[in-house]
Design goal:
Layout: H1 3-27, H2 32-50, H3 58-81, H4 86-92, H5 96-107, H6 114-136, H7 140-163, H8 168-175, H9 180-190, H10 193-198, H11 206-236, H12 239-242, H13 248-261, H14 267-283
Helix pairs in contact: 1-4, 1-11, 1-13, 2-3, 2-9, 3-7, 4-13, 5-6, 5-7, 6-7, 6-14
Subcellular location: Membrane
Domain EamA: 7-130, 144-281
Transmembrane segments: 32-53, 60-80, 86-108, 117-135, 141-159, 171-190, 210-230, 242-261
Length: 351
């Protein structure tokens, strides 16, 4: 990679890491499930009007949109609204990487090397340390919800992998069409129309302005700009060279939450976080098994290599390649509409 492309990869990781702080600001104004619907609706409308259909099987598009768009951000936003710190959320959402490898091995018969198994076990041990620390502080539920978000992201990765889109960014954008209506229905049933309507009051206050700025950041910077740059990098370089930069996302997320939100992680949480990062990096190391053991009918489509997981956050996984073909985010969204994980966004999200 050229120095310029390395700087771009770092810039994307920074954008996705800050996405979690942006999500936190938006959750101060909007209820979590409605915020998911609103975030994706802002992308879905122009996508329907301007972006060509990516030409993938509808069932895999729906799986991608349901796992990455609905389940990931439903649980991530719910967990953060219930008390999951933004910085720690950026780390725990990396659980999508080992989940993706395991689901790929079980459902798609992707071969998993011994090194990957060891890395997964290390990452799970790190998550267990973080979970134990959260349980000690009576805040286990937000942690478990965020882990569930990582599992949803992993299922979205399967849909993205099986779709094999020739134009990955188009698929990422069309993924945003899936969540708005289901999430609006859930919000109306769980959060009530009165609470939704009340969230639009006080938008000119400091909290309201920060919430709108956070939403704009998630959509424009975390998802569209971050996804676009990541897709370009994945087209120019091997996934194994680009993907490790995604591990900077939780580093940025935790640092930004400390500086901007005053969040403090315990020593045990920091140790567990370091273990998770080490495990994910080990599981994502190149092992030469990519593309082996695929289920019949899941051949890689031209251009699919350019996909990468993230919404904000992208699993640093190269083998099986399916983890590199997820969608961020975004975190939170991710990637923004991140996260992260996008195959290019990421993490659309939170990520």
């Amino acid at each position: 990679m050229t120095p310029r492309d390395r700087l771009l990869a770092v810039a994307v990781a920074v954008a996705w890491g800050l996405n979690f702080v942006a999500i936190d600001a938006s959750l101060d104004q909007f209820p979590p499930m409605f915020l998911v619907a609103l975030r994706f609706a802002l992308i879905a409308v122009p996508t329907l009007l301007l972006v060509p259909w990516p030409g993938v099987p509808v069932r895999w598009w729906l799986l991608y949109g349901t796992g990455f768009g609905i389940l990931q951000f439903l649980f991530l936003y719910w967990g953060m609204a219930a008390g999951m710190p933004a910085g720690l959320a950026s780390l725990v959402l990396q659980s999508s990487a080992p989940f993706t490898v395991v689901l790929g091995a079980v459902l798609l018969r992707e071969r998993v090397s011994g090194r990957q198994v060891a890395g997964i076990l290390v990452a799970v041990a790190g998550l267990a340390v973080v979970g134990w620390q959260r349980w000690e502080s009576a805040a286990l539920l937000p942690f478990l919800l965020t882990v569930a978000g990582g599992l949803g992201w992993a299922f979205g990765n399967l849909g993205n992998r099986l779709a094999g889109a020739g134009r990955p960014l188009h698929l990422v954008l069309w993924m945003s069409v899936v969540p708005p209506l289901p999430m609006l229905a859930v919000s109306l049933g769980v959060e009530s129309p009165a609470r939704i309507a009340g969230s639009f009051h006080g938008l000119t206050s400091r909290t309201g302005v920060e919430a709108l700025a956070g939403l704009a950041y998630t959509v424009l910077v975390g998802t569209l700009l971050g996804s676009g740059l990541w897709t370009a990098l994945m087209r120019r370089h091997p996934a194994s060279r680009v993907a490790p930069f995604s591990m900077l996302v939780p580093v940025v997320g935790i640092t930004a939450a400390w500086v901007l939100l005053g969040e403090h992680a315990s020593a045990g949480e920091l140790v567990g976080s370091a273990i998770v990062v080490a495990g994910v990096l080990s599981a994502g190391s190149r092992a030469g098994t990519a593309g082996q053991g695929r289920a019949p009918g899941t051949e890689e489509a031209p251009g699919a290599r350019s996909s990468c997981a993230g919404q904000g956050v992208t699993p640093a996984t190269d083998v099986p390649q399916l983890a590199m073909k997820s969608g961020y985010p975004n975190v939170p969204g991710m990637y923004s509409v991140a996260t992260q994980t996008l195959p290019e966004a990421s993490a659309t999200a939170a990520e």
